């Protein structure tokens, strides 16, 4: 395994269509959020924002998060 591969971390990205157009992207592990006109642009912007965040606030040793869904009844 290369040194570069050992220094990489896999994080979560959540994307949704923004009401004003384009996409919003969120990294829940750091709380970073970004936007873009396309999904790819939103992900690229989120990656950059998260990298900048991690330069100042490194992640502690952690386990991978559990990603699941919840169901809410009767939402208007």
User: What is the mean pLDDT?
Assistant: 89
CATH architecture: 2-Layer Sandwich
Name the beta content range.
15-25%
Quote the CATH topology. Double Stranded RNA Binding Domain
Total beta-strand segments: 3
Helical residue percent? 25-40%
User: From the alpha-carbon coordinates, what is the Rg to the nearest angstrom?
Assistant: 15 Å
Number of domain modules: 1
Uncertain stretches of 5 or more adjacent residues: none
Category by helix and strand content: alpha+beta
Structure annotation, total helices: 2
CATH class: Alpha Beta
Shape: globular
H/E order of the elements?
A: HEEEH
Give the strand order, joined by hyphens, for the main sheet.
1-2-3
What is the subunit organization of this protein?
single chain
Largest sheet: 3 strands, antiparallel
Sequence-ordered SSE layout with sheet pairings:
Blueprint: H1 3-6, E1 14-17, E2 23-27, E3 32-36, H2 39-56
Antiparallel strand pairs: 1-2, 2-3
Task: Give structural notes.
With 76 residues, the chain is α+β, with helices and mostly antiparallel strands. The chain has a single domain, classed as Double Stranded RNA Binding Domain, CATH 3.30.160. Helices cover 29% and strands 18% of the residues. The chain is built from 2 helices and 3 strands, in the order H-E-E-E-H. It has helices at residues 3-6, 39-56; strands at 14-17, 23-27, 32-36. Strands 1-2-3 form a 3-stranded antiparallel β-sheet, with helices on one face. A hairpin with a 5-residue loop joins strand 1 and strand 2. 9% of the residues are buried. The model has no long low-confidence stretch (mean pLDDT 89).
């Amino acid at each position: 395994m290369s040194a570069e591969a050992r220094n990489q971390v896999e994080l979560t990205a959540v994307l949704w269509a923004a009401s004003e157009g384009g996409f919003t992207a969120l990294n829940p592990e750091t709380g970073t959020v970004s936007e873009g006109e396309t999904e790819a642009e939103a992900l690229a912007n989120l990656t950059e924002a998260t990298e900048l965040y991690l330069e100042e606030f490194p992640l502690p040793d952690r386990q991978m998060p559990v990603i699941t869904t919840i169901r809410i009844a009767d939402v208007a």
